[in-house]
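User: Predict the complex with adenosine-5'-triphosphate.
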Amino acid sequence: MTDTTLKHSLTQAPALSVQGLSKTYNSGAAARQILGNVSFDIYKGETASIVGPSGAGKTTLLRCLAGLQPSTSGAVYLGNEKVTAPPRQLAVVFQDYSRSLMPWLTVGANVELPLRGRGLTAAHRHERAQSALASVGLPNHASLHPWQLSGGMQQRVAIARALAFEPDVLLMDEPFASVDAQTRADLEDLTHTIKEKYGMTILVVTHDIEESVYLADRVIVLSGSPTSVAEIVPVDLAYPRDQVQTKSTREFADLRAHILGLVRRPAA
Ligand SMILES: Nc1ncnc2c1ncn2[C@@H]1O[C@H](COP(=O)(O)OP(=O)(O)OP(=O)(O)O)[C@@H](O)[C@H]1O
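Assistant: Here is the predicted structure with adenosine-5'-triphosphate placed in the model:
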């Protein structure tokens, strides 16, 4: 156990706990075990990122955490509740914003959509949507349609929709992989702003090792076959983080090199 996890475990219960999770697709001769005995805890208010080799099962893991597909064994707990279906206190942002937004609805209606059936008045839904859009830097875009926005702006709308939910835990699956480098940097910084403003717990799956370090308080590195947790790396880089200054530090370079070594290590 690292100093960071020790500190957390002494002070609070995890917001999200993954306990001995395994996942096998198919059965009989076609069976393929993707995840084997994956365990980790995420603490309230923390941002953690998950990295691992392509095809390691990162999306599979995230879908199990979100209650979107069952694991083969093991369990996920959101607070004290075992996850068996998509929990109300958890929101997910996917990579492909073009498929997650409804093109025939306005931006405002897209953000309000998941709030229906939650016992909120229309005025309250509208207010939450406006506030979430303002938080992602789109305060005056509610009446536009998604196709009138750039890719980066559409992903901001998808993030606003998750924020309007006011979830305890926000899961993000390769959220910035489909946008250009500058927009990606802006959205990484937006993630820091959201964390500060809403105090929510964030778990980000990413291919990008630099991004995993820049965003997170801890990086969960997956490797092996079947995939398990190789190491949980604490990131003690100061906040606020800055794209140029933080990424130029020796500590950042050392963390990036260490994680790259873990990801590229051949399976035992
Ligand atoms: N529904 C499914 N049925 C059978 N096999 C699946 C299913 N979903 C994923 N797989 C397999 O599980 C493995 C892990 O896929 P997954 O998408 O979870 O990995 P990943 O780490 O997110 O990949 P990448 O880094 O390329 O995005 C892959 O070999 C994939 O083909």
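The pocket of adenosine-5'-triphosphate is lined by residues 25, 34, 52, 54-60, 207 (CB under 6 Å).
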